[in-house]
């Protein structure tokens, strides 16, 4: 199955990161969700850390509002913050409750170093650079989950992780990915010119994407290691 | 008519700023909306600048998401960003269209120095300090418009500015003011302790509120001066 | 007398801003220093506000350290912060003392709106964008003072402002201008490519320079208006 | 040997972090420098990563300039940035050259996750909070190296790491620690009031110190693990 079409920047970054991308998008944690062999305990550890991740990921998307230059950029970034804070995190609390993980445990969870490294790296990409640097660091999570969801939605058989897969394979999330992908393409065209790959900043922006991709792989691994 | 109850911090700041507060909340521009004597041209100038103001005010509320420490803080700040970007600014474009001011004119409007000074001061309050510094600089606009709306809703007779007054006197906006007031009280209790006025930072946080109040008065004045 | 050579970006920005640049670099305040007709009181008002300006200007140069990507960028920015904070501001206190303006008066000086608008605009340029946006907003002050100093050093006759002129016409300050100009050229080449003027961001970065240039003119005017 | 006196905040934080502090200040890496058993390769790995660390640590101290409210705060922070960028990093390049590690290898070094997690956590502490949050996250490195240097200076026998020990045990570095400690005490007194431990923010600020302390221990461990 080929990767979904989330725009030109994503396609170019994904291609540039080759083996790093596969190490994330086809991580044993992901394949374990697909075929149902992922230990339940690993999934729970992941969920708890993912809640803390979402807090800081929402903060980073809020920084994207601060760094927007057009109404379209502001609208997409603001809608993403609101969706993360006022919907996705509540959904997370609900999912965890269904698994016997209380909201108290979520809030009290000590942040793992892998989690810390990832979210603070993304935030600092935005502080150090402009919106392109920040979006390149935000993209692997948003769009990678879309790609993983779409693939597992097509490939997975009977697995206890069908709900997780359905959420990211679903039309709503896939539409988010296409919107964010289009916003990234427009933001890069505005600041780097086209073709992106000819811009002097292309390699450094791509390094942001690659580092965030590696940190995503580290995040899956943390789920396995903690279990 | 007494001021609406938007919480303890607002009441204390408002009292501390005495004459500065009245110079804003009872500015000739405001009284001109109340009794209908405000020149239409002044109102149009104000609306155009207010659009640009909202862009940067939304960016500052997004910074409040970045600086939140609790889910309640994040939720209120994120909802405010979304309301500003995905509702209030569209409403603004619509209102301006009804007055013959095109969206193009809004986007192309050169920012007045009074506008610049105000919005960038608020943003920098957040960069320099913590969430309390930022909220103290955000409060005069949000809550002052609530107070002005409520008073004019009660006092205004027949005036061409009835729509503006109705928007800010209305239940929806008054509820926003109570929510934001409660969030401010909680944020200050968490960081300064209670009573707020006994905290070593109280005077400096109050200076943030006072400066923003003066810059709000300057914003009304700009509307008159440009006309 | 032609403008000093502080690099390619400065030359291009200066040319693009034509009348705005002259309104700053040949402002009546400047010409009054040259021919000695500037009222002493105006100069004193300027000095007091300039002290507060330097505080926030140093903060903005510190943000340039935060946003640096190379050791050369960091070194130039860090040296500038240190020079501003640990030398220029002390010099300022000393100059003011010689004019009977106490350090207490400097610290207690209420910031004028023109001052506020300028410094916070520069800071926000750095928060919103990358190092190029920030440097474009920092350049008119640093390099403009160099150009004004050099011209007045050559043209001024007997004037009570000879010390001010000598400071900015002097070899030390002119060397700073050449270093900062070279750093700006390198930072733009790295991020925008060459020629700068062909980059998609060139016009927006130039707008940063133009806005800061206008705010500089407003700063001189404030000195005259307060007197 | 008792800990050196770097002020009240440091003493209180250090005490509060008990076992976490010892796990950092008496880490096997440290004891290996003391008795000379630390493998040379581990030290080299540490030095390379420490160079990258210093880049981002200097950026975080620059953020402290941005967040300063008094001239004393600005002066100490600006002097620290300048010392890090224009002295300590050059010294580092020199030390590494003496060990056969070229400047090219330093610049090209891929940042380890432990390094990334630490420096970006410190930076984000400053973005999220005020100067106290940032200083609490900066303190374990600056003052911990002072304590370790002082102890090893007194305890170490013949060891190949005598130069490293002498640098941090020396009068210059110990004076820096006392200055930074005094600045921290003043910054906390200004914002939290005294006694610090009675302030509502004390526990959260102490958590910043504790997290940075754990990340410092992780940094030593990385040196051992990479070797």
TrEMBL record, chains A, B, C, D:
Keyword annotations of the record: Hydrolase, Thiamine biosynthesis
Domain Thiaminase-2/PQQC: 21-225
Pathway: Cofactor biosynthesis; thiamine diphosphate biosynthesis
A single GO molecular function term of this UniProt record: thiaminase activity
Catalytic activity annotation: thiamine + H2O = 5-(2-hydroxyethyl)-4-methylthiazole + 4-amino-5-hydroxymethyl-2-methylpyrimidine + H(+); 4-amino-5-aminomethyl-2-methylpyrimidine + H2O = 4-amino-5-hydroxymethyl-2-methylpyrimidine + NH4(+)
Keyword Metal-binding found: no
UniProt-listed Enzyme Commission number(s): 3.5.99.2
Hydrolase in keyword set: yes
GO biological process terms on file: thiamine biosynthetic process; thiamine diphosphate biosynthetic process
One GO cellular component term noted in the UniProt record for this chain: cytosol
Classification via Pfam families: TENA_THI-4
Function, as annotated: Catalyzes an amino-pyrimidine hydrolysis reaction at the C5' of the pyrimidine moiety of thiamine compounds, a reaction that is part of a thiamine salvage pathway.
Similarity section: Belongs to the TenA family.
NCBIfam families found in the cross-reference section: salvage_TenA
Protein's name according to its UniProt entry: Aminopyrimidine aminohydrolase
Species per Swiss-Prot/TrEMBL record: Mangrovicoccus algicola
């Amino acid at each position: 199955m080929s990767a979904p079409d989330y725009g030109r920047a994503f396609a170019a970054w994904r291609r540039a990161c080759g083996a790093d991308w596969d190490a994330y998008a086809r991580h044993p944690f992901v394949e374990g969700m697909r075929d149902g062999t992922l230990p339940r305990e690993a999934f729970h550890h992941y969920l708890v850390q993912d809640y803390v991740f979402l807090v800081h990921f929402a903060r980073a998307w809020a920084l994207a509002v601060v760094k927007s230059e057009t109404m379209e950029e502001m609208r997409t970034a603001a809608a993403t913050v609101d969706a993360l804070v006022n919907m996705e995190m509540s959904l997370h609390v609900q999912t965890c409750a269904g698994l016997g993980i209380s909201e108290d445990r979520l809030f009290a969870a000590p942040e793992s170093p892998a989690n810390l490294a990832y979210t603070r790296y993304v935030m600092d990409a935005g502080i150090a650079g402009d919106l392109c640097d920040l979006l390149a660091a935000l993209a692997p999570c948003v769009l990678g989950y879309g790609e993983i969801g779409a693939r597992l939605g097509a490939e997975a058989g009977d697995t206890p992780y069908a709900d997780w897969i359905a959420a990211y394979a679903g039309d709503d999330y896939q539409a988010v990915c296409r919107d964010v992908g289009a916003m990234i393409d427009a933001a890069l065209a505005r600041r780097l010119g086209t073709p992106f790959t000819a811009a002097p900043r292309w390699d450094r922006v791509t390094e942001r994407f690659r580092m965030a991709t590696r940190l995503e792989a580290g995040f899956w691994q943390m789920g396995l290691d903690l279990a």
